[in-house]
Design a protein that fits this description.
By secondary structure, the protein is α/β, with parallel strands linked by helices. The chain contains twelve helices and twelve strands. It has two domains: about 240 residues, Type I PLP-dependent aspartate aminotransferase-like (Major domain) (Aspartate Aminotransferase, domain 2, 3-Layer(aba) Sandwich); about 120 residues, Alpha-Beta Complex (Aspartate Aminotransferase, domain 1). A seven-stranded mixed beta sheet has the order 1-9-8-5-4-2-3, with helices on both faces. The relative contact order is 0.16.
């Protein structure tokens, strides 16, 4: 059997070719608009409509979405931001980039922030919480929002892996002060380059974000008497999504509901055959299908011999990495669950273009390995 890749761009592109992607890109190029303009506005409007969100805009990456949200929230040098260590690096690097201090809270057995530990980490320097909807499943947002309201903290949802996921029948990115999405190619909605999106609660934040993503330049009505051309009122960065990526994303957005259903279908198959569980977490969009075992390296090496590529998300919690070790304090920080999970998790191939016979092959090989080695596998899903 041919190699089963963790992700399959060629199959996706073949599908998009049938949907006239190159005609769409040609039209975008011929418009003469590289940044901003009608193409970007159309995509931004369609994204907000899909997510049932009133305010928001596109940016250059998911990392920039976090940085700009922190800037817009007024997070500055010396402020503390509560989040998790079992996450992708940008969650933490964005906090450090704005001069703030990441304060780590351990995760629960579902790899999400342990809400019962948040209040213990709040100090007079705490200004925000970044809950990470890891792998595609939402955090316990009601409890997080209750804590945030009590201590007057900003909530910035890290939705990089969870576009399309719902919490209490509402899409993620609609709960916090800001929602940050990534369009990295392997994400639920991925570009053929990079990109991101920020959702927010009000017009004032939207206007500020609009300036922050473009050097802090004035972008108000040019007819206004106080308008100054190419004039920056405050520090901003260059974080504009180009129209080519917007065009690709707008086309792919049409198929997201179908693609999420495919992810959930194969997740259900994995659950049933590997874990002997008949259902899935319906709030989960399965950006990643992640399992746990104490024999991770052995099972990964075995699957490689069968031409099955798997991933690890994440092998090293961020607090163990050199740039961020100084923010971890052994005396009062307990991240034992994050560290244990990072030694056990592995991710199976799961995307809209995987074939059923490939999924069945993966299941068969895992079951064979488990039987031979008396191996136990756990879920990271809320089921």
């Amino acid at each position: 059997m041919k190699k089963i890749n963790f992700w399959e761009f060629k199959e996706e592109l073949k599908f998009l070719k049938s949907k006239k992607i190159f005609n769409k890109l040609k039209k975008t190029l011929e418009s003469g608009e590289i940044f901003f303009g009608k193409t970007l506005k159309k995509f931004e409007k369609n994204f907000l409509n899909f997510n049932k969100t009133r305010y928001g805009l596109s940016v250059k990456s998911g990392t920039d979405a976090l940085i700009l949200s922190l800037m817009c929230a007024g997070i500055k040098k010396g402020d503390e931001v509560i989040t998790v260590s079992l996450t992708a690096i940008p969650t933490i690097s964005s906090i450090v980039t704005v001069g703030a201090v990441p304060v780590f809270v351990d995760v629960n057995n579902k790899c999400l922030i342990d809400v019962d530990q948040i209040e213990k980490k709040i100090s007079n320097k705490t200004k925000a919480i970044i809950p990470v909807h890891l792998y595609g499943q939402p955090c316990d947002l009601n409890k997080i929002l209750k804590i945030a309201k009590k201590y007057k903290l900003k909530v910035i949802e890290d939705c990089a892996q969870s576009f399309g996921a719902k919490y209490s029948n509402k899409f993620v990115g609609n709960y916090g002060d800001f929602g940050c999405f990534s369009f990295y190619p392997t994400k639920i909605l991925g570009a053929y380059g990079d990109g991101g999106f920020i959702t927010c609660k009000n017009k004032n934040d939207l206007q500020k974000l609009n300036q922050l993503r473009f050097y802090g330049l004035e972008v108000s009505n040019k007819k206004h008497s106080k308008y100054k051309k190419y004039y920056s009122n405050f520090h901003g960065i260059n974080s504009r999504l180009d129209n080519m990526q917007a065009s690709i994303l707008d086309l792919k957005l049409q198929f997201i509901k179908t693609w999420i259903k495919k992810r959930q279908y194969y997740a259900r198959l994995y659950n049933k055959k590997i874990l002997n569980k008949k259902k899935i977490n319906k709030e989960h969009v399965y950006h990643l299908y992640v399992l746990r075992t104490q024999r991770r390296n052995k099972i990964i090496n075995y699957l490689k011999t069968k031409n099955i590529n798997v991933g690890i998300h994440y092998e090293n919690p961020v607090h163990k990495m050199n740039p961020y070790k100084k923010y971890f304090h052994n005396k009062y920080d307990n991240l034992l669950n994050s560290e244990k999970i990072s030694r056990e998790v592995f991710s199976l191939p799961l995307h809209p273009f995987i074939k059923k016979n490939e999924v069945e092959k993966i299941i068969a090989e895992i079951k064979l390995f488990n039987n031979k080695n008396k191996n136990e596998i756990q879920s990271t899903d809320k089921i």
